[in-house]
Amino acid sequence: MAIEQTKAYKTLRKSLLDSLEARGLVEEVYRDKVEEYMALWRQLRALREDIEERGVTVMDEKRGMLVENRSVSLAAQVSKQMLAIYTALGLKPADHPARRLGADDDEL
Prior knowledge:
mainly alpha
């Protein structure tokens, strides 16, 4: 199933858009930032899956030693960018049920 079809994705996206609309921020520039946020959210999920599958360290075949899984540092960068967008939109963590409920756990 495409991530855009998951309940967590739909709930978070709708919550972000609803919050903006409630504050009268309906211009395309705000909707575009929500889409950028959601693209980063998808990337962060993929990075977390990679870390879960391969771990925080991976074997560097050229050097023959364990090195940091690049997904770890990329996840931190993506998360930082998401927070910047979230803050720029004037949102607070309590605004979004998907955040409060830990919507990352779409499947039980």
